[in-house]
């Protein structure tokens, strides 16, 4: 004789099995979505980290370094004063600095470079000669010392380790002042990528009978 109780038990077991399968599929879908979100987040964080690393590297390497700095002495004889006033009145009125790329640096465009001049008498921002806002700030000029492919002459850009440009700062400009014997000044050069170089210029204690001095 057929047992109806066993039939109901079989149907109950089938319903429980389907419910478990549905829950399992739902869990798999949720896990897949979560994994996709985690993978996307990890990729985004990796890209951000790489970009930050590149920017930090550029700030360290993409900069100019000093090769040599010379100051022009505007002494008392230039204005017709007596020889007895030569030591007292001699001042540095022009700074000529030869620069090159730092080791590992990419191209540096001088037009995109700014400088901060700090002396005992003032602090001022300097901008490139061709900058549109140069009328508001003192400017610096440059000439080519060495350039294999005319990049400095044509594009104002140092793009090779052998390139040399001489940067000239006229201290007679508004917002600047000449340096006396024994004084010092600090010059901070900042490139477009954020690389910075700080140079301390020290004037000798005596400028007597000198037209130029090493700073």
TrEMBL record:
Which cellular components does GO assign to this protein? archaeal-type flagellum
Q: Which UniProt keywords apply?
A: Archaeal flagellum, Cell projection, Cilium, Flagellum, Membrane, Transmembrane, Transmembrane helix
- Transmembrane: present as a keyword of the record? yes
Q: Which residues cross the membrane?
A: 21-45
Q: Which GO terms describe its molecular function?
A: structural molecule activity
One GO process term, biological-process aspect:
archaeal or bacterial-type flagellum-dependent cell motility
- State if Transmembrane helix is listed as a keyword: yes
- Please state where this protein is localized: Archaeal flagellum
Which InterPro entries does this UniProt record tie to the protein? Flagellin/pilin_N_arc, Flagellin_arc-type
- Source taxon at top rank: Archaea
Q: Which PANTHER family match?
A: FLAGELLIN B1 (PTHR35903:SF1)
**Family under the similarity heading:** Belongs to the archaeal flagellin family.
This one is known as: Flagellin
> From what organism does this protein derive?
Halapricum desulfuricans
